[in-house]
Amino acid sequence: VVASMAHLQEEKLRLQEEVLGLQEKLTAQENDELSRSLQLQAQVETLKAKLLEQAQEISRLRSELGGTDAEKHRDLLAAENERLRQEMKACEGELRELRRQQQAPCWDCAHLQQKTNRLAEVELRLKDSLAERAEEEERLSRRLRDSQETIASLKSQPQQIKCIIKTVEVESAKAKQALCESQSRNQYLQEQVGMQRQVLKEMEQQLQSSQKTVAQLRAQITMYEAELEQAHGQMLEEMQAMEEEKNHAIEEAFSRAQVEMKAVHENLAGVRTNLLTLQPALRTLTHDYNSLKRQVRDFPLLLQETLRSARAEISQAIEEVHNTNRELLRKYRRELQLRKKCHNELVRLKGNIRVFGRVRPIMKEDGEGPEAANVVTFDADDDAVLHLLHKGKQVSFELDKVFPPQASQEEVFQEVQALVTSCIDGYNVCIFAYGQTGAGKTYTMEGTAANPGINQRALQLLFSEVRGKAADWDYAISVSAAEIYNEALRDLLGKEPQEKLEIKLCPDGSGQLYVPGLTEFRVQSVEDINKVFEFGHVNRATECTNLNEHSSRSHALLIITVRGLDRSTGLRTTGKLNLVDLAGSERVGRSGAEGSRLREAQHINKSLSALGDVIYALRSRQGHVPFRNSKLTYLLQDSLSGDSKTLMMVQVSPAEKNTSETLCSLKFAERVRSVELGPVSRKAELTSWPSQEQLEGDSPGTAASSSRGHTSPSPGQLSGRAASIRRKLQTSG
């Protein structure tokens, strides 16, 4: 109610302010109308003065003109007087209309009454002026009649009068000029009257607009007063209703209080009776309370003993759970290893190509921003699964083993060394690295001087195994290095690295392939290995592209041949380890290859496409496998045709800008993983007891290639550095 009253009070104050504003507006409009009335009165006075001046001018002209001139201008003056009389009547009618409009009912009547009085005075003055003008016209008419009579009498006089008339006519020229001036003055007065009439019309229009505004304001005031009265009535009704509700609530509360009071009195009487009967019970409760108090005093000791026993039981249960979890984890890992071992054995029996994946870390060459974001994730429970985020969707791939970016060269080689050691037992082994350019293939296969890759570690492992079996076996290890550059096979360790070699079948009818004229060095120590690798690096083709500063422009093959002889049984084994560093697949638009780089990229992509065709044919078990479509696939025919243990190391980049190439590489890896080459055969034959010289000179073809490898190159054919490295190799051989 208070809020509604305050609201109504505010509304009332607002309405009062609006009424005061309307009153001020009406006062201003009345002042304007009063000033306009005064102006109109002044204009009427001016008209009267002009009429008097015109009457005086007419009298002056009559006195100056003769009878003839009076007759000429009498009609004009009469018409002019008639027009002026009509104009005065029109002004009088307008004044009466103005007075009638101003006499309309108005809520501020005092000011309007003053205007009406002033207009009445103006009307009286106008009537007086009209009467005076009528008298003047009557007087002029009489003078005109007298003039006419005088003219008639003058006509009847002798001829001398005519001369006088002529003189009068001569004198009447001035009167004629004065008459013209009076006509122009009369015209000026007519224009003034027209202007005053227009001003009067404008004042009437303003008066009508002010009257409309007053009517609107009165309607608004009436509406506001009605709203105020309605709000006041509603407020009174609400206050009355609230007063009634308050009285009703007070009566109900009072009646409830009386009822509750009666109930309280009754309860009090019952409580008094209960108190009398509860005194013995109170004594019993007091005794019980004292006994409970003693128990509570002893409760902390009991609680501590209970907590100690509970802690011991909980610790024992936790320890049992931990032991159970450790046992379960041990069993799970053992089962996982067993499963992996069984899977590897199954893969070995089937002859599947094993596929390992390695993800390189994000490097500064990848740049910054969204394009350098990592889109490759790994499965925490399975080290053979990785996930690739491609176009907002996660694609999963399962390989035989996946190495994260933090995996070291040693960890990678630990997974590969089982294949490397099988080379000593007489098996053919092929390990090749596949992936886009800049994905880390050369780093995985060759590594650096401080952190070598699979190639050098494999030879070190072979030397270690040979030394371990030196008591029963005699081994000879030889190394060859070649590259396929623009579909041309070149010897990286020969005197003429630019000479093109051909791949041919062995003449012994075994169906194996060999490269006639390929230089083969026998190595006996790690120093020999380093010299061979350095010599091969000098001759290998690498260039800088937009994607890789040291991009391999050819497929590099390191062929390690291990020939063994068991001195006790005469068993002879021959194993080959082919370590292949494929050139990276690249998109010409991104790598920016031009000229010779473009031709190299085309040959690289063509050979990799041929490798894909071979994998597809092997996977779909087609009768014809197109090995001869490329020098690369033709050279790898022994490794991909079921007579070799083959491992593919797929290298991928985790950067977002390389997502398409990474997806293609992983899909190709899955296809390669599903290829079954069949069981692998061991190359071993039982012969008679050989000598060390026979072991070293194993075959005529090998001896010829070795002899070629030990010839001295001419300085004009190789650079100084390559020649010095070759001389060191010859000395060690």
From TrEMBL:
Biased composition range(s): Polar residues: 702-717
Record bears the keyword Cytoplasm: yes
Coiled coil (UniProt feature): 5-157, 200-252
Example GO biological process: microtubule-based movement
GO molecular function, one term: ATP binding
Membrane topology of the entry: Peripheral membrane protein
Residue ranges with Basic residues bias: 724-733
Keyword Chaperone recorded: no
Region feature Disordered, mapped onto this chain: 682-733
List of residues binding ATP: G435, Q436, T437, G438, A439, G440, K441, T442
Classification via InterPro entries: Kinesin-like_fam, Kinesin_motor_CS, Kinesin_motor_dom, Kinesin_motor_dom_sf, P-loop_NTPase
GO cellular component, one term: kinesin complex
Sequence ranges assigned to domain Kinesin motor in this UniProt record: 352-675
Keywords, ordered alphabetically: ATP-binding, Cell junction, Coiled coil, Cytoplasm, Cytoplasmic vesicle, Cytoskeleton, Membrane, Microtubule, Motor protein, Nucleotide-binding, Phosphoprotein
Compartment(s): Cell junction, Adherens junction; Cytoplasm, Cytoskeleton, Microtubule organizing center, Centrosome; Cytoplasmic vesicle membrane
Function: Minus-end microtubule-dependent motor protein. Involved in apically targeted transport. Required for zonula adherens maintenance.
Entry similarity comment: Belongs to the TRAFAC class myosin-kinesin ATPase superfamily. Kinesin family.
Protein's name in the database: Kinesin-like protein
